[in-house]
Amino acid sequence: MGRSLEGSVVLVTGASAGIGAALVQEAVGRGARVVAVARRQERLEQVAAAFGERVLPVVADVRVDGELERAVAGGLERFGRLDVAVANAGFGVAGFLEELTLEDIRRQFETNVFGVVRTLYATLPALVASRGTFAIVGSVMGYVSVGGSVPYSMSKFAVRALAEGLRCELRPHGVAVVLVSPGFVESDIRRTDRWGVVHEHARDTVPPWLRMPTGVAARKIVRAIVQRRREVILTTHGRIAVFLARHLPRTTAFLLARARPRRRSGKEAGGPAASRPEGQLRAR
Ligand SMILES: NC(=O)c1ccc[n+]([C@@H]2O[C@H](COP(=O)([O-])OP(=O)(O)OC[C@H]3O[C@@H](n4cnc5c(N)ncnc54)[C@H](OP(=O)(O)O)[C@@H]3O)[C@@H](O)[C@H]2O)c1
User: Fold this and answer.
1) Nearest protein CA to atom 45 of ligand 1, as residue
2) CA 173 / ligand 1 centre spacing (Å)
3) How many domains does the chain have?
4) Is pTM, for the whole model, over 0.85?
5) What is the Å distance from ligand 1's center to 88 Cα?
């Protein structure tokens, strides 16, 4: 693929909002053609509208077997090749474990872990053919597990393990694996409840000064992909958290054990899910 995206074809899951939508824009800006995948057709078409034939929107759900294969087939038919796949689709199941169920955790893994694995299996033959790049959007929460967000952290620890081992397996095939570990980035994720429902008017619990703009995040992610870097950690607070987790694990455990996650009221999360037992994520 060289060091540019010029002439490359990029598939992005979770392309209808947040980081994924910004990635579509950034990739096209760098000369790529993009297969943009998500469930909400209207949002996806809004994202694709500005780019004409350069973006192929495909409505697909990463939880459903076979849907990503269909997206890849559509991309190959339109563009003839695939150089980069970004497994970005995700959301957070928040809440204290005592109030969650096995079903909540299964739902979290179905999207954040098995969705990534489905994306891998669907794109791998084309990536091997192009000696391309598979990027996984994990999280700083793949290094630290905080009370109130355990299912989310479990899922992000899992995809970090996937990235590390997969890198060894794909190296002989010339396919690079890039792990993206963001701290707080501007997006809808903290307005999305544990059932995956977005509450557009809900307040983001993270103060604006702490959130990286999506455009900045997308630029850094695409740069890491082009450079075939092993990992990119986004945000200063994210890099500090990962440094502490790696080098001062006992201090980190001490601090985390004393962190008292706040139980959120339904009202704060807003929207129709407010009457449900709510536990919106504070940390993503
Ligand atoms: N923003 C942060 O602070 C932050 C921090 C660390 C990690 N991350 C990670 O970044 C990634 C992107 O999240 P975001 O922050 O950009 O959140 P977002 O604004 O809520 O966007 C999530 C995207 O994922 C898609 N999606 C969700 N479930 C899907 C499914 N089953 N099938 C296909 N697409 C699905 C959504 O589209 P549809 O609803 O249309 O399907 C949407 O496009 C996630 O993996 C998240 O864990 C975010």
Assistant:
1) 90
2) 29
3) 1
4) yes
5) 6
Q: What is the pLDDT of residues 193-227, one digit of tens each?
A: 999 999 999 999 999 999 999 999 999 999 999 99
pLDDT above 80 for 240: yes
The answer to whether residue 281 sits within a structural domain is no
Structural domain of residue 140, as residue ranges?
Answer: 9-275
Residue nearest atom 2 in ligand 1 by C-alpha distance? 185
3-state secondary structure the chain: CCCCCCCCEEEEECCCCHHHHHHHHHHHHCCCEEEEEECCHHHHHHHHHCCHHHEEEEECCCCCCCHHHHHHHHHHHHHCCCCEEEECCCCCCCCCHHHCCHHHHHHHHHHHCHHHHHHHHHHHHHHHHHCCEEEEECCHHHCCCCCCCHHHHHHHHHHHHHHHHHHHHHHHHCCEEEEEEECCECCCHHHECCCCCECCCCCCCCCHHHCECHHHHHHHHHHHHHCCCCEEEECHHHHHHHHHHHHCHHHHHHHHHHCCCCCCCHHHHCCHHHHCCCCCCCCC
Which atom belonging to ligand 1 lies closest to the Cα atom of 180? 7
Any domain includes 146:
yes
Q: Is residue 280 part of a domain?
A: no
Task: Please report whether residue 283 resides in a domain.
Answer: no
Q: Known catalytic residues?
A: 152
Mean local confidence (pLDDT), 147-175: 97
Beta pairing partners, 57: 36
pLDDT in tens, 132-148: 999 999 999 999 999 99
* Closest C-alpha among 155, 18, 164, 23 to residue 93: 155
Here the CATH number for the domain that contains residue 158 is 3.40.50.720
